[in-house]
C-alpha cells in the first residue's frame, strides 16, 4: 500500500499521481496498481513517470474502469502498488534521441532527467507527438537539450537522427514501427512495448509476444526490446 500525496488532472483525461515510495526504481520500469477489491479483476500496469526523494510519480490516461477509479483517489487515500517490474531502459553511453507519442511520453521523463543528471556532457533531444492537446512539454524542456513538438501531424515525418545517437521510443505501436523503420540501421533503437497484463511478473503468460528471438513476456523480458527483436526491419 502507498499513500497518495497528490492526484490531479494535467489536462482533461490525463492525471498525475504522486505516492510515497522508497526503494530502487529504474526508468522504463512499471508498477501494477489497484485501488479496488474485485472489479475490475486485474491490477493495471502504469510506468514510472518520475522518482525522487521518496516520491513516485505516475502519469496516466483515463481509458476504462481501472484508470477511472484511479482518477477518483484523493491525497491521503491508499493505492496498492506492486513493483517495480520489468527491465526498464538500458544504460546508454551515447547521445540520446527520444521519441514519445501521447501517453507513451509517460516513462520518458524519468529516463531523460536521470540521463542528464548522470551524463551532463551528453546531449538528449526529444520528439513529442500529440494527436490534439500536448502536455508535459515544459517539464521536458527543463531536462532535455532540445524538444521538437508536433501536434496533429506525424512526428516521424520530422524525425532526423544523428549518427552518434541511441534512439528510445514509447508510444502507439504504429509510431514505434515507423521509428524502427526510418532510423538508419547504424543507430541502436529501443522500443517500449505494451501488452495486456495480469500478473506483471512472468507467471501467467498473458503478455507473451512473438519475437525473432522466440516468445517473450513483455512484463519480464521487456517491456523494452531492441528494435530488431520485435519489428521486421
Ligand atoms: C508496461 C506498461 C506500462 C504502461 N504505462 C502506462 C502509463 O504510464 N500511463 C498510462 O496511462 N497507461 C499505461 N499503460 C496502459 C495502461 O495499463 C492501460 O491503459 C490500463 O490498464 C487501462 O485500464 P482500464 O481499466 O482503465 O481500461 P480497460 O477497461 O482495461 O481498457 C480500456 C481500453 O484500453 C485498451 N487497453 C487496456 N490496456 C491496454 C494495453 N496494455 N495495451 C493496449 N490497449 C489496452 C482496452 O483494450 C480497452 O479498449 C501501460 C501498459 C503497460 C503494459
Ligand atoms: S503479465 Fe503475466 S506473464 Fe506477463
Automatic annotation (TrEMBL):
**Residues that bind FAD:** 44-47, 59-61, 66-67
Q: Name one GO molecular function term.
A: flavin adenine dinucleotide binding
> Does Ribosomal protein count among this protein's keywords?
no
Per the record's keyword annotation, is Iron included, yes or no?
yes
Give the EC number(s) under which this enzyme is classified: 1.3.98.1
Known CDD domains for this protein? DHOD_e_trans
Gene3D superfamilies cross-referenced by the UniProt entry: Dihydroorotate dehydrogenase, electron transfer subunit, Nucleotide-binding domain of ferredoxin-NADP reductase (FNR) module, Translation factors
> Which positions, given as ranges, span the membrane?
none
Q: Name one GO biological process term.
A: pyrimidine nucleotide biosynthetic process
Belongs to which family?
Belongs to the PyrK family.
Q: Which PANTHER family match?
A: DIHYDROOROTATE DEHYDROGENASE B (NAD(+)), ELECTRON TRANSFER SUBUNIT, DIHYDROOROTATE DEHYDROGENASE B (NAD(+)), ELECTRON TRANSFER SUBUNIT-RELATED
How is this protein named in the record? Dihydroorotate dehydrogenase electron transfer subunit PyrK
Gene name in the database record:
pyrK
